[in-house]
Amino acid sequence: MATTTIDVHGAQTVSRAVRALQIVAAQAPEGVRLVDVARELALQRPTAHRLLKALTIEGLLQQDDRSRRYTLGPLLFELGISATHQFNLKEVCQPVCDWLAEQTGDTTFLFLRSGYDAVCISRTQGPYPIQTPSVPLGSRQPLGVSAGGLALLAALPEDEIETVIQAVAPRLGAYGDLDADELLELVGQARLSGYAVTGNHAAPGVRAIGLPIYNAAGSPIAALAVATTQARMTDERIRGILPKLKTAAREVTRLLRQ
Is the Cβ–Cβ distance between 31 and 20 less than 8 Å? Predict the structure, then answer.
């Protein structure tokens, strides 16, 4: 019985540590305050401080002496470099992203699923002269906020969709007053139509369309999206972009399965 208790406690600690790293990553490069991490993790400040201090000692976080804000530490960079040869999704997908941006004229995004979030790992601008405010490269948003994140969320099993929406609900209000009910409705529309469409949440004045990318096991791990102004991204334009987006998603899936 004691062993089980220790195991559960250890798993909770690891889960909190990972979530703390995700919270800090979401605020890069400005960093995050202790009070913000404590609130997000529903922890008392002393408990959150001990957790952040341990991560800082190990090099996973670092703290600015003046602002006292926490940012990602050097060890994460080293670990990322070590993993590059095993996970080169951006490298594999970039030629397809370039082609899609050229074909549509608009900005193409590649998102990677990371827990309850979607991380933008590639952004390619097309030749259309008016480009939009866009999701920054490397930014992290809750699944469902961006078109890529919505495509990923809609591709999950129904019980997992409910779990994700429940988990991200407290963070949705920062994205165009999005809430859990609206997100669930967007998921339903995406599952019905076979593609995700969202506007004015990930970036003001922007509408985008997205499709998931599946690994060899059939699990959605990433998503492609095309974004432009709301005025330009009409329903008619979506119908024109969709075949190109489907071609790109199929090609990336094929490349990942090789």
Answer: no
Confidence of residue 198 (pLDDT cuts 50, 70, 90): very high
Q: Identify the CATH class of 87-257.
A: alpha beta
pLDDT (tens digit per residue) in 205-239? 889 999 999 887 788 889 999 999 999 999 999 99
Query: What CATH code would you report for 2-81?
Result: 1.10.10.10
List, in order, residues 6 or more apart from 43 with CB less than 8 Å away: 16, 37, 51
H or E element, residue 198: strand 196-199
- Which pLDDT tens digit goes with each residue over 148-193? 999 999 999 998 899 999 989 998 888 888 899 999 999 999 999 9
Q: Give all strands (DSSP E) within 22-143, no chain letters.
A: 61-63, 70-72, 107-114, 117-124, 140-142
Domain with CATH 1.10.10.10 in the chain: 2-81
User: Does position 257 have pLDDT exceeding 80, yes or no?
Assistant: no
